[in-house]
Specification:
With 282 residues, this protein is mainly alpha-helical. The chain has eight helices and four strands; from the N terminus they run ββαααααααββα. The chain is globular, with a radius of gyration of 21 Å. 40% of the residues are buried.
Length: 282
Amino acid sequence: MAGMHSILFQLGSLPPIRSYGLCMALGFLLGWLAAVRLCKRTGQNADALSSLLTWLMLSAVVGARTAYVLEHWTTEFAGNPLSVLRVDQGGLMFYGGLIAAAIVLIVYTRICRMHLFQVTDLVLAVLPLGHALGRIGCFMHGCCYGKITDSWIGVCFPRESPAWWEQVSAVPPLIERTALKSLPVIPTQLIESAANALLFVLLFSLYPRKHTERGFITGCYLIGYAVLRFGIEYLRGDPRLAVGPFSISQTISLGLFVLGVLCLAYARFANRLLRPRSGSQR
């Protein structure tokens, strides 16, 4: 199977429409529509959601790009610093975006005097939908690829793709510079996209019944994504920064898993304290 269609089409002298940027835009749009629908189903104000999601989108892109650049500065950006601005060509680290958006979200809830979990439960219920589309964009661009495989699921990316360059630059080289495509690699982008889609279906269906238990959806997301990302990291073949025996993303996943467990504990015990005791009368 062949992969990578970075440029979808181009009209005359206008800038080309790139698959990565289009998938990212669709992810934000569909995530926003899903959040609005959840607000309507649960009787919440959807109008205040638009400004928040705009700030979250901007902070997520900046944070994701910053984290990616820091991780790949020597190999990709040192020779051409201006390419840092070309977000439409791919190169975002999800956890960087998540952390940046979390900081903005905390500031927002403090300013608006809202309960943090009231907002995070809603946002994280729909985040996997946008993330699933974003990973399709990764596949179309050719980044975030997996390890070399001889399995039937293997994908060959074309000449000049990130996987092709990595295999050409290996010591010793895995393929010749005259090769028209890379060796087959695991399509980790599509695997993570499918896993995020399933996580979205689960959280979207749970939210209307569990949104009053503040922190429950947040905990479910953090645990669910931490587990799937930790596992997928073992399949990734692109360069990864290491923290001891784990990649940097696996290390963050471990932290998010613990945080998710604490969120579920809060949801359970806080809800129990707020629930009226049976048999009590006023």
